[in-house]
Amino acid sequence: MTGTRPRPAVFLDRDGTVNEQMGYINHISRFHLLPHAAGAIKLLNDNSVPVIVVSNQSGLARGYFPLELLDQVNEKMKSLLAREGARIDGLYYCPHHPEAKEEQYRRDCDCRKPKIGMLQQAAKEMNIDLARSFLVGDRWSDVKCAHRAGCTSILVLTGYGQGDYRYIGPGQEIQPAYVAENLLEAVEWILPRIDRN
């Protein structure tokens, strides 16, 4: 990819955006795709837009589940999406927390959203232009992350979205470019606006 112009991508939060928000997914049985999530991702796939999941996973740091389970959950996500003809092109997660129970994950990192380390890593590894990219999530930390990275932010009202929109959002200086009912509505808003030239 050396020498090729960086492309725009759509970054997706995982829990509450792609799958049902269950708090910490501490068992494989707790992972369920949200309705229309696979269809939304397939729509991006069909339009040749890279789809990259960026997820805070502090449950690892807190000792609520092992790395093996996180890997299993991510594989289940990919498998469920594949059944509906959808795929993600990149997956990044932050296992850290400043007050982690697990010492290996105890740090004030640069990847835990709203910090932008995961997006920067993806941009470098996948030749992504953050300024032409979008980030969809259900928390104000996603909105802030997008703003800091230079992406366009969309808040979805799934997961924690409705509560964040009602109780957190009004007091925030940084606001999303768009508020969508769900991931499919977000993607339908993004596609006419994404600059792929």
Describe this structure in words.
The protein has helices spanning 37-46, 58-61, 67-83, 117-126, 140-149, 161-168, 183-190; strands at residues 10-12, 51-56, 90-94, 134-137, 152-156, 178-180. The chain is of the alpha/beta class and 197 residues long. It has one domain: 3-Layer(aba) Sandwich (Rossmann fold), CATH 3.40.50.1000. The radius of gyration is 16 Å and the shape is globular.
Task: Compose a concise summary of this entry.
With 197 residues, the protein is an alpha/beta fold.
Descriptive terms for the model:
single chain; 197 residues; alpha/beta; 6-stranded parallel beta sheet; 13% strand
Give me the CATH architecture, please. Answer: 3-Layer(aba) Sandwich
How many domains make up the 3D coordinates? Answer: 1
Query: Over the alpha carbons, how many angstroms does the gyration radius reach?
Result: 16 Å
Our measurement of the CA-to-CA distance between the termini, rounded to an integer number of angstroms, reads: 16 Å
User: Which structural category fits the helices and strands?
Assistant: alpha/beta
Q: Helix-strand pattern, N to C?
A: EHEHHEHEHEHEH
| DSSP helix fraction | 25-40%
Unreliable segments of 5+ consecutive residues: none
Largest sheet: 6 strands, parallel
The CATH first-level class comes to Alpha Beta
What is the helix tally?
7
Protein topology:
Layout: E1 10-12, H1 37-46, E2 51-56, H2 58-61, H3 67-83, E3 90-94, H4 117-126, E4 134-137, H5 140-149, E5 152-156, H6 161-168, E6 178-180, H7 183-190
Parallel strand pairs: 1-2, 1-4, 2-3, 4-5, 5-6
